[in-house]
Design a protein that fits this description.
The protein contains eight helices and eleven strands. The protein has 284 residues and is α+β, with helices and mostly antiparallel strands. The radius of gyration is 23 Å and the shape is elongated.
Amino acid sequence: MKHSTLWLLLVVVCAVRTVGATGDSLYFLLPSDTVIVKSDPASGHLLFDHYLAPKQTLYGAARFYGLSLEDVYRLNPGLRAGYTPGTRVTVAIPRGVIRPGFSPDSTAWFVPVRYRMSPGETLYGLTRRTLGLPDDRLLRVLNPDLDPTHLSPGQIVKIGYLRLDGISPGTQVEVEDPYLIRNRALRDLWLARTEGATVRTTNGKAAWTSHGDQSKWMVLHRTAPIGSIIEIDDPRSRKTVYARVVARIPEQVYDSRVVVVVSPLLVKAFGVRDKEFYVRTRHL
């Protein structure tokens, strides 16, 4: 009778969990959770999407994964505006905490970690470059049916196990903002072009448009030379991003307080929702 009651209780607990949530109101990870990581091409880090369950906080999730709240914002710029139960929070999972196995009596303390293959990725690339393993023996043991000649994009491969009591900050990777990593080439170009030069500073409003190439750092500016690089500092997010001036600001659309109009990629990098926000720009 006791076993039946316990089983019923477990069923009820599982039933009340929010669909898509990771963990529950007491724990950030449960043995029943599915931890699927992906490789970030910009930083090389393994990233996992945690979905906040009711009563889970962003601060609590950051601490559980060994990150600071600022680290979480770097990985999720849009979360500065707020979050709700069910919100996706991308976190880094350091390779060093993924274990190849565990003792039979420790099953309740671990959750399997799986990896989603990227387009064009091979077993060799996953083993050496992504996971830093000397060979593929571990992956073959964890995936007995794995055929390295028939890997496909999106295929799931088990890569080890993660403890359920959280990640120590001392084992975490150094988290850099993925957008700022992508922006480095323009930053380096800005530094090279402005070395020893006189630059002009303008404070005012930035507006943004949903039009234009979603993958390019582009802005409209009133006076900066067309084709030049400008520096844009957003005090709210404490980010500095560099972009190329592609055209002038149309006077009939934006008032004089708008000093720069940014493309969709910069909107994502700054994590803004308001149509206008205050910035400082520097240009030649």
